[in-house]
Amino acid sequence: GLQRLQPPRFFPSTRASFPDRSRIMLRAAVERFGAHVAVGAGAAGAAAAAAVPTARCAKDEAKTVTPSFDPEALERGAKALREINSSPHAKNVIALSNEQERTKAAEAQAKQAEMQALAAQHATNTERVRWEEQRKTDEARAQQQAQIKEYEDQLARKRYNSEHEATRQRNAEMVKMQEDASQRQESLRRQTEEQIQQSRRETDRQKAEHERELIRAKSIAEAEGRIAENRANEDVIRRQMLARIEAETSKAMQLLQETLSTVGKGFSGLLEDKQRGAAFVGGITALAVGVYGAREGSRMGFRMLERYLGQPSLVRETSRNIWGFRPQAAQAATATAAQAGEGASAVAKASPGAGGILGDVVLRRNLESRVKHLAVATANTRKNSAPFRNVMLYGPPGTGKTMAAKRLARYSGLDYALMTGGDVAPLGADAVTRIHELFDWASTSRRGLLLFIDEADAFLAKRSGGVAASETAPGVRAALNALLYRTGELSRDVVLVVATNRPEDLDAAVLDRMDESLEFGLPDVEARQRMVRLYFDKLIARGEDAGDDAPAQGLLGAMGIGKGGKRGGGKKGTPIAVSADVDDAALKAVAEQTEGFSGREIAKMMASVQGEVYGSNAPELTLDILRGVVSHKVAEHAARGAGFGKK
Hints:
- This protein has 19 helices and eight strands.
- By secondary structure, it is mainly α.
- A six-stranded mixed β-sheet has the order 1-3-4-5-2-6, covered by helices on one side. A two-stranded parallel sheet has the order 7-8.
- It is elongated and about 220 Å long.
- The N terminus is likely disordered.
């Protein structure tokens, strides 16, 4: 049994591989014959595996035999091997073992092929990585070269800029040097020319002085010659003068004698014929009376005609005439007042259109309420026949003082007349007469008259200084005194309203005669929004004028005769198409941009927008056109406030 366990019979000669092969055989036996064979074979295999080294150690080195050797295990292993040998499947185990060896060899070849594939893949990856690194290196090199080129380009640009700047500075220095040289040449030329002119003037002066001396000497010589000649011919000249005087005297005496003889004969005839004498005296008397009466009568008639039919020369605009013709706005106000009743309620309800008392006049809310209250008070004063109060309106130009005065007169039921203080100074000494004629004409109004004096400081300035005190305008001071005389007492016929931009320049006596003072300041943002909307609707949307409604004028003015027939608004024009982007927000932005603008400036700005649209190819208002005109007007207003660049 021990001889069958020798390696050469079943396995290769390699001793070291015997345990592995025995284990393979044992595993195969277990798989084919079940667990009872596997247990025994396992024990036998273990004993065989342990016995072979023991035998080897006993043969080679006896000292290595362990004292704990168990022979039963060897016997069990041998028994298991005998069973395997005696089993009909022993050859199958060896065949199976060979098949497993071939399988392992195939697996080893597959693994070797796989390892070769992995090696090839690794080589491919290594090549790919190498090419990727090469590409990155090339890109880095190209980027570095590009950076070098860019840096060189920047250096070239800097060098070019520095050279250009140096060239520009050299050119500027050359231009400056040329300008300095030209200025020096010009100054030298001017000095030379001045010297030449001075030399010429000096030569001319000497020449003129020499000529004067010659003329003087010549005149003296001629005078002395004439004197000597007259002295030599004194007797002859005396006789000639006496003969001329005697001839003229005789001629005059003959003419006088003939005239006196003719007149004497005529008077003698009249005295002899009493009827002819009485007729002659009566005719002379009637002729004198007729000439004098016609002259005085025509003068008085013209005065009465001018008083009732015409208007004084100082009045620029009025709503009054003798036939009751009044502008449409004033008629509407009066008719509404008559329907609603007299007094405050009438004035409050008199609102043609949607304007109310002030109509299209836009003011600050607090000022608007004060003006309305003053209109109510004036209407009640007229109703109760009480004395009127005089009013002073002051503030910057273009804030609505004139328009408010006209509305105050219209909606209080009064006639009104507008004049300007600048018309008084050119009248000179005739200004006093014109002032008295103006107040006489105003006192004939049946409704009462509101006399509005615009630019009052032009002739109502302080007498201690200003225009009224100037020696070149003595008539202005006299006109001021005449106005003070006519306004010294309260009047039931005339309401005096003065407007000025400088109330501090008015005379103290004029200020003392003012019962109410209203300051018309620049509009705030809310008032500007209303003004922008108002003038936008008038000038752009409806194509109307920016002025007040119907102009106030007399009948002759309405017919185109005399003054006051051309002013005012209410005229119709062509409306302008508005794009959709010009909305309330855009108009609100315009009002916010125009801080510090007066009402007149806002109206003129909208007129400029209208003109800009008419000047464009397509007559349509766009947001760009509106913004452009507003920006220009804001810059113009700022420049005007800064004195147009003056320091």
